[in-house]
Amino acid sequence: MATQAPERPTAAVPPPPEKRRGSRRRAPRFTMAIPAWIWLLAFFLIPVGYIVFYSFGRKPSLLELKPGQINTIATDQLSLERYKEVLNSESLRVVFGTTLQISVIGTILCLIIGFPFAYWMAVRVPEKYRGIMLGLILIPFWTNFLIRTIAWQILLFQDGWLSTGLQSIGLTKAPLQILDTRLAVQLGVVYNYLVLMILPIFVSLDRIDPALRDASKDLGANRIKTFFQVTLPLAMPGVISGLLLVFIPLMGDYITASLLGGAKGTMVGVFVYEQFLTAQNWALGSAMAVFLIAMILLMVAIFGSLLWIVAYFVRRSWRVTLTEPAAS
Asked: What does the alpha-carbon distance between residue 56 and residue 79 come to, in Å, rounded to a whole number?
């Protein structure tokens, strides 16, 4: 006769605790972002809004001003005349083209120089020495931007030690004629912004697990395929960040152009600076600044679209199709 197994006693489930009256309510999740939004509103959106508003104004004439009064902007009659003035000025169109050319070439040069250096630090340099290498890169960057640019001005001067040194060893017969040219501006911007390219790329490369590269080599890929199929795709976030960190501030740079470029290397930032502080024409300077912002956004959109297209076709070329084995 089969005996029935005794039933196991079930543990008593404690009743849910009653909600306390007047318990503290949790704040919404976006509360932590409020300081960042306040900072963005106060130091970006409101100043840019003023610039856009001033671009529709005009510079008041001397007859409108009272004796001893200084007024740089009048917004009683809003119009698009300042934008027409920017578009119809041949010199401004040339300067905008020069600025775009210097910025694009400078960004590409920073990428060409910065990526191999960041790769060497992240992959080849032992981990215990990487902090020293980063310190050697950051110490010059911590120096004042103006002082670094003036140092290049001294270096490229006709009677500077670089020019005299090259003449003494016979590489050049005449003094260097680099200062106050576009080439001097190009050298200056690459030096000033190169660190902003190296750091994000180094961080991306340093986070890649070395086992991924070893696994790629174990599966038969050589070093070139491993780089293009494993290392470069994983480092793309750092490359994109470096491109943005270099290109955007480089477009608005005016210190390097004013100290090293002279009349031949003038950039838009110099014109905006002169309109605000020298010519006291805030309306025209604001219109030029709005054009500069629009140009930056347009170039970022174009580069982003091209990068997306290239990445799409690269992913398609690397796609592997698995087929079922043929039935025996």
From this structure: 5
What mean pLDDT is predicted for residues 52-57?
Answer: 94
Q: Answer whether residue 182 shows pLDDT above 60.
A: yes
Amino acid occupying residue 237? P
Interacting residues of 92 by C-beta distance below 8 A, sequence separation 6+: 86, 271, 288
Length of the chain: 328
Q: Which residues pair with 298 in a beta bridge?
A: none
Residues sharing a CB contact under 8 Å with residue 193, sequence separation 6 or more, in sequence order:
106, 110, 245, 246, 249, 250
Q: Where are the domains of the chain?
A: 41-61+71-310
Q: How far is CA 141 from CA 120, 198, 239, 256, 325, in A?
A: 20, 12, 19, 15, 59
Please tell me the predicted confidence (pLDDT) of residue 235: 92
User: Cα(199)–Cα(251) distance, rounded to whole angstroms?
Assistant: 20
- pLDDT at residue 5 is higher than 60: no
pLDDT single digits (tens) 193-209: 999 999 999 999 999 98
pTM score above 0.85: no
C-alpha 246/C-alpha 196 separation (Å) is 6
CB-count burial class (<10 Å; 0-12, 13-18, 19+) for 139 = exposed
Looking at every residue in the chain, the average pLDDT score rounds to 85
Q: Is 246 in a helix, a strand, or coil?
A: helix
Tokens of 86: 């920017």
Distances, alpha carbon 255 to alpha carbons 154, 224, 234, 280, 325, in Å: 15, 41, 35, 19, 66
- Rounded CA-CA distance 248/252 in Å is 7
| End-to-end C-alpha distance for the chain, whole angstroms | 56
Q: Rg of the chain over CA atoms, in angstroms? A: 30
Using alpha carbons, select from 88, 78, 99, 86 the residue that is nearest to residue 290: 86
The correct CATH number of 41-61+71-310 out of 3.40.50.150, 3.30.1700.10, 1.10.3720.10, 1.10.260.40 is 1.10.3720.10
pLDDT digits (tens, 9 = 90+) for 55-70: 999 988 766 666 655 6
Residue 23 reports pLDDT greater than 60: no
